C-alpha cells in the first residue's frame, strides 16, 4: 500500500500517547525517543499528541456519541479517533487529510468502524470547546480542594496556549525589552510575550533572559535581599538559581540529577551568572556550614504546569501524589537543620495538590520545630498571601493577562 503523506507524524503521535498514557512517561521524554522523524514531522506529532492530552474527556464524549459499540478506553481505535478529532479542533487539518492519515493506523483492524465514526462526526460538525473538561478524577480533587470556579478556570486555561514569561537579571533591561518587543512587565525583572519559539526571540543567545513562568519566579523573590549565603536545594535546571545569583547572593545549588545539573551549568554559562554546583541526594548530603537562607523547590506531581504539560493530569495518580508529599516532608525536615538562627526557609512546589503544599507545611509546623510562618510582604500585588500566611497560586489568577502556572510557596523563619 502506498504511504500516505503525513502518516509518519500521526503514527509517532500514536506511539507518544501510548508512552504517556500507558507507561507514565512525560511527552518530552516520549518525543525524544522519536528519532527518525524530520523536525517538521516531530513538531506536528508533538502538537497532535498535546492537543489530544488537552481534550481527552471531550473527545471521548464525541466518539461515544457516534457509535453504539463501546470502544475500550485504551483501544487503538479510540486513540486513532482522538488523534483525528484533535487535529480537526486544534490544528485546522482538512477533513480529507485527517481521514487519509487515520485509516492506515488501523490497517488490518477496525478500519471500517473508525471510518464510520469519523465520517458521522465530520458530517455533524465537530465543536471546538474553549473550556474542555479535565479528567474526572482531577476535576473532583480540585473541586473539593479549591471549588468549582477554579475547575472552570482550569478548563479555560488548558484550551489556550500560555504566553511566554522571561526573567531578566536586571529590571531595567526587562522594562526596555518589554517596550521594544511588545511585551508586558507584570513584576520586576519580568516580561511576558506572546507564545513563540524561544530561539526566535532576541536576546536568548546573549543570555539576557531565561524562560520561567511568572509563578515559578515568585519563590526566589521571597529570599531576603540581605541573606548572603543561600542554598538552592533541588535546583536544576536552575531558573531560581539564576534569579538568586542575579540578585547578588552567594548561591550553592544542589540537585541529584547529573543531566539536569548539566542544563543548569549551561544556563549559568549562557547568562554569565555564578553558583557553586553540587551533585548530591539532599537526603544524604552533609553541608559543611549553615546558611542564611534556603530555597527548597521540591520535586512534585507538577500538576500546576498542566497548561504546558497536559500529561501531568494523567501521571499524577493518588499514590504518586502521596509519595511526592512524603519525599517533600523528608526534604523539608532535612533542610531545616542547615539554617542559621533567624535563617529563612522558602518551600515551594509547582503543584495544585494541597497534599503537596499546605499539608506538608502544616505537618512540618505541627511537629517539634523552631520555625514559624513569616508572612511575605515583598511579592507582586497579584500574589496575595492566604490568611495562613502562605501563597497559593490557582488557575484563575491573572487570567485576563494570560494566567499563571499553579504554585504553592511558604516562607518560614527559624526562631533565634
Ligand atoms: C521542581 S524541580 C526543580 C526546579 C528548579 N528549582 C528550577 O527552578 O529550575 C525538582 C528537582 O529536584 C531534584 N531532586 C529530586 N529528588 C532530589 C533529592 N533527593 N536530592 C536532590 N535533588 C533532588 C530533581 O532532579 C529536580 O531537578
Number of alpha- plus pi-helical segments:
15
- The backbone outline, from C-alpha atoms, is globular
Proportion of helical residues: 40-55%
Order of helices and strands: HHHHHHHHEHEEHEHEHEEHHEHEEE
Alpha-carbon Rg, integer: 23 Å
Task: Catalogue the unreliable spans.
Answer: none
Provide the structure class. alpha/beta
In percent, how much strand structure appears in the residues? 5-15%
Q: Give the quaternary arrangement of the chains.
A: single chain
Q: Quick one: biggest sheet?
A: 8 strands, mixed
CA(first)-CA(last) distance: 77 Å
Bound molecules: S-adenosylmethionine
Mean pLDDT, all residues: 94
Instruction: Report the strand count.
Output: 11
What does this structure look like?
- This protein has 416 residues and is of the alpha/beta class.
- It contains 15 helices and 11 strands.
- Strands 4, 5, 6, 7, 8, 9, 10 and 11 form an 8-stranded mixed beta sheet that branches.
- Strand 4, helix 11 (239-246) and strand 5 form a beta-alpha-beta unit.
Amino acid at each position: 500500500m502506498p504511504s500516505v503523506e503525513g502518516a509518519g507524524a500521526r503514527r509517532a503521535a500514536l506511539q507518544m500517547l501510548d508512552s504517556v498514557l500507558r507507561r507514565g512517561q512525560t511527552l518530552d521524554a516520549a518525543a525524544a525517543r522519536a528519532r527518525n522523524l524530520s523536525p517538521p514531522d516531530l513538531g506536528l506529532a508533538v502538537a497532535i499528541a498535546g492537543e489530544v492530552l488537552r481534550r481527552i474527556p471531550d473527545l471521548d464524549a464525541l466518539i461515544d456519541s457516534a457509535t453504539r459499540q463501546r470502544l475500550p478506553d485504551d483501544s487503538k481505535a479510540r486513540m486513532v479517533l482522538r488523534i483525528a478529532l484533535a487535529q480537526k479542533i486544534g490544528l485546522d487539518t482538512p477533513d480529507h487529510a485527517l481521514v487519509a492519515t487515520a485509516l492506515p493506523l488501523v490497517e488490518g483492524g477496525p478500519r471500517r468502524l473508525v471510518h464510520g465514526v469519523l465520517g458521522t462526526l465530520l458530517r455533524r460538525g465537530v465543536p471546538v470547546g474553549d473550556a474542555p473538561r479535565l479528567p474526572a478524577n482531577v476535576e473532583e480533587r480540585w473541586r473539593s480542594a479549591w471549588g468549582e470556579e477554579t475547575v472552570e478556570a482550569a478548563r479555560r486555561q488548558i484550551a489556550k496556549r500560555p504566553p511566554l514569561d522571561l526573567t531578566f537579571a536586571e529590571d531595567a533591561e526587562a522594562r526596555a525589552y518589554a517596550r521594544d518587543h511588545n511585551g508586558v512587565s507584570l513584576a520586576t525583572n519580568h516580561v511576558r510575550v506572546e507564545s513563540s519559539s524561544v530561539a526566535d526571540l532576541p536576546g536568548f543567545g546573549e543570555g539576557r533572559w531565561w524562560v520561567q513562568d511568572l509563578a515559578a519566579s515568585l519563590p526566589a523573590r521571597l529570599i531576603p535581599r540581605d541573606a548572603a549565603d543561600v542554598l538552592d536545594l533541588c535546583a536544576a535546571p536552575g531558573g531560581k538559581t539564576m534569579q538568586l545569583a542575579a540578585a547578588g547572593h552567594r548561591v550553592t545549588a544542589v540537585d541529584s540529577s547529573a543531566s539536569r545539573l548539566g542544563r543548569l551549568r549551561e544556563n549559568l554559562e549562557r547568562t554569565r551568572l555564578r553558583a557553586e554546583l553540587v551533585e548530591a541526594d539532599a537526603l544524604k548530603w552533609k553541608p559543611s556550614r549553615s546558611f542564611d537562607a534556603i530555597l527548597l523547590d521540591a520535586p512534585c506531581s507538577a500538576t500546576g504546569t498542566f497548561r504546558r504539560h497536559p500529561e501531568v493530569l494523567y501521571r499524577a495518580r493518588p499514590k504518586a501524589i502521596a509519595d511526592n508529599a512524603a519525599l517533600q516532608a523528608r526534604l523539608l525536615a532535612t533542610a531545616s537543620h542547615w539554617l542559621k538562627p533567624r535563617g529563612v526557609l522558602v518551600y515551594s512546589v509547582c503543584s495544585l495538590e494541597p497534599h503537596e503544599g499546605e499539608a506538608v507545611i502544616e505537618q512540618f509546623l505541627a511537629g517539634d520545630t523552631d520555625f514559624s510562618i513569616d508572612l511575605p510582604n515583598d511579592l507582586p500585588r497579584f500574589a496575595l498571601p492566604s490568611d495562613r500566611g502562605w501563597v497559593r497560586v490557582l488557575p484563575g489568577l491573572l487570567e485576563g493577562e494570560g494566567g499563571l502556572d499553579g504554585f504553592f510557596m511558604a516562607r518560614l523563619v527559624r526562631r533565634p
